Amino acid sequence: MKIDESMLGTEPLEIREEIPADDLGLGEEAGLTIGELSFEGTASKFDRGIRIAGTITGSVNGPCARCLEAFDRELSISFRSDFIEGEYFNESAEAEVGQDDLDADVLPEGPIDLAEVVREQIILAEPERQVCGPDCKGLCGSCGANLNLGECGCRDEAIDPRWEALKKLKSEIKNK
């Protein structure tokens, strides 16, 4: 959907849009699959430009970056993005950037492409390395076993000799 200033009146424009994930070109590098996305929100005029606010929902699945197991999780991103007319941007090299300016972009000459706004918000909100869960232990660096399934037994065998003195100190403290 393209949003043009002529579409907006005094009341916010309600938007409910299904966005094909294939059109966004996301996740291909990491082997991720993003399911059907939907956007529900509003577009409205304000004194300096156009504001788009709402929530993006969908699903993400792919391999975990730590343990390589497949995961599937829901995606829900709430955002507000302001498109401000160029005359309101301070071109001074030493201009202070306020909190509201972080969600602002220059209002384009033509219509605003909602798919591009959704793409940008997903990139900003989602981590670069997707994991199956915050408590994922990953793979053993020695044998490659999935540590989420249990200890592999080889973790204590290969210790860097520079840390040997610290290991002795730890065992002495533990035995006291």
Key terms:
6-stranded mixed sheet, alpha+beta, 8 strands, 32% strand, elongated, 176 residues, two-stranded antiparallel ribbon, single chain
Tell me what you see in this structure.
This protein has 176 residues and is α+β, with helices and mostly antiparallel strands. The chain has one domain. 14% of the residues lie in helices and 32% in strands. The chain has two helices and eight strands; from the N terminus they run E-E-E-E-E-E-E-E-H-H. Strands 2, 3, 4, 5, 6 and 7 form a six-stranded mixed sheet that branches. A two-stranded antiparallel ribbon has the order 1-8. A hairpin with a 2-residue loop joins strand 4 (37-46) and strand 5. The mean pLDDT is 84.
| Overall morphology | elongated
Number of helices: 2
The topology string of helices and strands comes to EEEEEEEEHH
Low-confidence stretches: none
Secondary-structure-based class equals alpha+beta
Task: Report how far the terminal alpha carbons are from each other.
Answer: 69 Å
Mean pLDDT over all positions: 84
Rg computed from alpha carbons, rounded to a whole number of angstroms: 24 Å
Please summarize the sheet with the most strands: 6 strands, mixed
Portion of residues in beta strands equals 25-35%
The total strand number stands at: 8
